[in-house]
Amino acid sequence: MRLSAVVNCAAFVSMLSFAGAAGAATEPLRVSGPVTHENLSIYFIHGPSQKGPVPLTLEEALRDGKVQVRETGNVNSLEIENLGDQPVFVQAGDIVKGGKQDRTLTVSLLLPPKSGRMPIGSFCVEHGRWSPRAAENASKFDSAAAVVPSHEMKLAMQAPVPAAAPDRPGNEVGIRQRQVWDSVARTQHRLTTTLGGEVRAKISESSLQLALENEKLLAARDRYVKAMKAAGDKDDIVGFVFAINGKLNSGDVYPSHALFAKMWTKLLDASATEAVGLRNQPAGEAPTMAMVDDFLAKADAGKTSEQPLKFGMARVLSDADAGYRVEARVAQGWVHRSYLAK
After folding, report:
1. Residues in the chain, pLDDT under 70
2. Within the chain, where are the H helices?
3. Does the residue 46 lie in any domain?
4. 254-275: buried (b, 16+ CB within 10 Å) or exposed (e) per residue?
């Protein structure tokens, strides 16, 4: 990793304060809901909200040219650089569009101002292309408007990988990459079946991002979004958990309502997309709030393991019978918690 010699120290301290106060908060979180539309049920997580400056999201920073995500020639590693004066929040599952293949990023982190170039792990969500697509720049990525819309894809990226069996050789990254590709194909197939029309784009049939831009899908997804988006506007909401067809799926929690609000539309889009794809499957009763509370409590109390990241951050995995909690942490606290039901 090459770091810039000049770092905006005040902004970096502000970034750590954003996480630190959240880590020090003692008020308990509260669950409300569900808010339900068709087969999607959403439970909001209410709690203390860190005040002060809020980092840019990767979507905002790419749009404004304050971050660059570049190709490296390696499917499972990209290069990211914060060129601006504000911290940037990157969430595991963010999809970056362009380059030689669309990718999804593997870790949540806060990228400090003037970070210099640093590697970041990725998985390909577009199998086969390795050249420019239309007028796109094959050396870098231009947008990050979506996150992965699949529970099984999140598990493939974040859950522990069992030791490779004799009939399934390969290292951990290779195993995860194959699982992600398989999940992309299943997601496209489910959406095509449910919508009664092909969602794969002719220009690149394997691209998950282009499938997410399909007009029929957008129309079906937006019915969920219009019915549910306003429910997330309360200023004490810091996260959410959702269930599809009566089964707990996953969720995300942030240090502040302000960061949640920045991510909410993108996360709701992904949840609604998954619900559209599973609409034809058998549905059960929505979980109770007590069931959601129990899931979160058990995931929080699971066996933990820690992986160090750049800039003093760490990825902390909590593994319990009910599911996983994946936490992006700095010394002063945490900046993102992702929950995944098993």
Report:
1. 1-27, 163-170
2. 9-24, 58-63, 151-158, 172-195, 208-212, 215-228, 257-277, 289-300
3. yes
4. bbbbbbbbbbbebbbbbbbbbb
Residue 180, pLDDT score: 98
- pLDDT 10s digits, 143-177: 999 999 999 999 999 999 876 555 555 689 999 99
Per-residue pLDDT of 265-323, as tens digits, reads: 999 999 999 999 999 999 999 999 999 999 999 999 999 999 999 888 999 999 999 99
Tokens standing for 113?
Answer: 């101002």
Residue type, 164: A
3-state secondary structure of 49: coil
Distance, in Å, from the CA atom of 134 to the CA atom of 118, rounded to the nearest integer, reads 28
Q: Coil, strand, or helix at residue 291?
A: helix
4 found inside a domain = no
Is 312 among the domain residues? yes
